[in-house]
Amino acid sequence: MKLRPPAARLANCCWLPRLADKTRAHLAGELSLSYRIAFGSAIGVDGYFLRHFRLRLPAVIGAVKSSPDDEALARWFTSRPGVAPALIEEWNAFAPKLGSKGHPGYAARQTLKWLLYPRSIFHPVNSLFEAIVQDEDLAAPGN
After folding, report:
1. pLDDT, tens digit, for every residue of 1-40?
2. Is residue 23 part of a domain?
3. Could you list the residue range(s) of the whole structural domain that residue 116 is in?
4. What is the Cα–Cα distance from 134 to 143, expressed in whole angstroms?
């Protein structure tokens, strides 16, 4: 299972391509346990993303399922009532700070790192985006 990095963008929106990848893996039955735990979780980045854009996970799953490619998914996303360029810019500034001290998700990251981001226990990071990148880069073959 290959997921794009948290900061990758689709429709100029970070996290959207990663959520699309996770959804495709979910639909194919390929999400590992830790990813299934986090998929759509209200306390994870998925939950913040969904709330920010006033989306529901079943709608995203349906859109990914019915979109033949990323361009079609981007068109669906930008046509949603809760999505506008200003809100995308706001999200792009907010999301990379999730899990950072003084920002939403900090307590959850500190608690869940033992299960979801164990590498960050011995090699501290500052945010959920950093924890994800660290975990996936170190988990890659040859690292």
Report:
1. 789 999 999 999 999 999 999 999 999 999 988 889 889 9
2. yes
3. 98-143
4. 11
